[in-house]
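stage 2 :: seqdesign
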């Protein structure tokens, strides 16, 4: 049987998949079974932050895998404790972390912290969480309900938990808040929703209002976290101090890990929350290495250089193709180009793939770029050369 046949027969059909058999990856370049190369402007949807086949991360994982991979959270785990310490240092916030295994699970943890805060801190019960339209917070029953996209709240999976509503704009949140509202959860750059950053002043105003009214601000940094926007957290860039921050995608460099960082360190007590795999030796050793690599990469100026180079090439590509693209959006190495219609976007992504460059879709009309943060200039050049060739014929 071919890979396609086995996959279709034995794996549940929940993804609209491309059938290519990638065999090898080096930084931002992937090779299929015929040794055809592809420039990867997706990094596995913002995950492989330090590139494919990163030697340092691989060595750290190998060394750990040959020793202890997992002991459960009934015992202290040295790399988990050290990763918690490093996340506090890199974030610059006075936080402690709970470790989960994915973005959705990190958001579940954030919501649990908020709910308990609402239950224990006030005379009345506060449990409502307000999110925003076009947000994306995950695929579990709760996080899908928190996600501000009506077409994801299908009756097929109902009933959903109570206490979630979403507003069109940040400015609408003020009116939606009532005395049962415990938290507002937002992304600072909506990733899945269309690579849409919010205005800094608007976010700062909201953060200030929430603080004054004792309502928690949860920032979902599952996609924006771990240097994606140029700073360790987008919250650093926006100069706000959220109560809870969630991370996942880029943090493990390909190893599943989620994290809930909060300044409210004493809300959850032993037994309130937990995870079998969360923060085990294997994933925290990987994430420690990823964070150490990226901290150096940021401090020596290489990250900013990569961002500027990518941006320059992207803007060049955009200005050469204004008949197709209407707007350039995003921050850092989280970028998008708005396309007039969805059909053209689908065509571009398909043809780009055939021409050896991987790109993503966001929302209904955005071509999305999430390259590895360590992408080389040569790979950026080649990727945009191939994209240029792709759109020539559209
Ligand atoms: C990807 C994503 C999630 C969900 O993460 P999973 O690891 O797929 O559960 C949640 N929030 C944001 C902002 C994301 O981009």
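stage 2 :: out
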């Amino acid at each position: 049987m071919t890979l396609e046949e086995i996959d279709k027969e034995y794996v549940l059909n929940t993804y609209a998949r491309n059938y290519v058999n990638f065999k090898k990856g080096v930084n931002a370049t992937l090779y299929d079974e015929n040794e055809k190369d592809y420039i990867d402007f997706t990094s596995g949807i913002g995950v492989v932050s330090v590139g494919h086949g990163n030697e340092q991360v691989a060595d750290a994982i190998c060394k750990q895998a040959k020793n202890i991979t997992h002991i459960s959270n009934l015992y202290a785990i040295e790399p988990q404790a050290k990763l918690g310490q490093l996340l506090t240092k890199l974030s610059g916030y006075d936080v402690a972390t709970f470790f989960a295994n994915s973005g959705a699970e990190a958001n579940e943890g954030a919501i649990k912290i908020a709910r308990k805060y609402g239950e224990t801190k006030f005379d009345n019960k506060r449990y409502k969480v307000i999110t925003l339209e076009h947000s994306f917070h995950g695929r579990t029953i709760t996080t899908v309900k928190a996600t501000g996209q009506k077409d994801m709240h299908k009756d097929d999976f109902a009933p959903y938990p109570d206490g979630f509503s979403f507003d069109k704009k940040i400015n609408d949140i003020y009116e939606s808040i009532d005395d049962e509202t415990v938290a507002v959860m937002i992304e600072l750059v909506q990733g899945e929703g269309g690579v849409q950053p919010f205005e800094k002043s608007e976010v700062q105003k909201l953060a200030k209002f929430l603080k004054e009214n004792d309502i928690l601000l949860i920032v979902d940094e599952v996609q924006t976290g771990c240097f994606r926007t140029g700073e360790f957290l987008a919250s650093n860039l926006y100069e706000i101090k959220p109560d809870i921050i969630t991370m996942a995608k880029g943090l493990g460099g390909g190893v599943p890990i989620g994290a809930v960082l909060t300044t409210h360190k004493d809300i959850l007590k032993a037994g309130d929350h937990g995870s079998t795999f969360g923060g085990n030796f294997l994933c925290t050793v990987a994430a420690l290495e990823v964070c150490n690599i990226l901290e150096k990469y940021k401090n020596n100026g290489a990250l900013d250089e990569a961002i500027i180079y990518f941006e320059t090439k992207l803007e060049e590509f955009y200005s050469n193709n204004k008949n197709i693209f209407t707007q350039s959006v995003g921050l850092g190495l989280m970028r998008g180009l708005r396309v007039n219609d969805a059909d053209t976007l689908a065509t571009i992504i398909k043809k780009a793939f055939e021409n050896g460059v991987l790109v993503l879709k966001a929302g209904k009309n955005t071509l999305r770029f999430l390259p590895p943060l360590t992408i080389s200039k040569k790979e950026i050049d080649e990727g945009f050369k191939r994209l240029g060739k792709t759109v020539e014929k559209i």
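stage 3 :: structure notes
- The pocket of pyridoxal-5'-phosphate is lined by residues 102-104, 107, 136-138, 187, 191-192, 220, 222-223, 248-249 (CB under 6 Å).
- The first strand starts at residue 22 and ends at 26.
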